[in-house]
Specification:
Shape: globular
Distance between the termini: 31 Å
Radius of gyration: 13 Å
Strand order of the largest sheet: 1-2-3-4-6-5
Structural class: alpha+beta
CATH class: Alpha Beta
CATH topology: Aspartate Aminotransferase, domain 1
Mean pLDDT: 96
Low-confidence stretches: none
Helix content: 25-40%
CATH architecture: Alpha-Beta Complex
Number of helices: 4
Largest sheet: 6 strands, antiparallel
Organism: Planobispora takensis
Protein name: YdhG-like domain-containing protein
Length: 119
């Protein structure tokens, strides 16, 4: 089974009040750059290129959290990322409107990650 199929299966079985929003965030991340790979790790869909980039946390029910594992590496002046412990950063999406409003920023973060990993 491919990693993408594992994520498809995980999401198809997921009972979550923001499942559609989670799927929308996943779609933006994987389509932002063809180098991004996905799998299920740490209890949710995870995304990587050369190193682990981010994971969606389905245990949170009132928004879709995207945990950027090395978020401190990003130069984000958009205000989307909130600093977390151990160099992590969090993006929190509370609605489809919120996701669409931040689509370009999320795509930029993904592409910035690929660029950093290629340098």
């Amino acid at each position: 089974m491919s990693a993408t199929q594992k994520v498809d299966d995980f999401l198809s079985k997921l009972d979550h009040p923001m499942k559609a929003e989670m799927e929308a965030v996943r779609d933006i991340i994987v389509k932002a750059n063809p180098k991004i790979e996905e799998d299920v790790k740490w209890g949710g869909p995870s995304f990587a290129y050369k190193e682990e980039m981010a994971t969606l946390n389905p245990r949170v029910k009132d928004y879709v959290p995207v945990i950027f594992h090395k978020g401190s590496l990003f130069d984000d002046d958009s205000g989307l990322l909130e600093a977390g412990p151990k160099g992590r950063a969090y993006a929190k999406f509370r609605s489809m409107d919120d996701i669409e409003a931040n689509r370009a920023t999320l795509e930029k973060l993904v592409n910035d990650w690929v660029k950093m990993m290629d340098e």
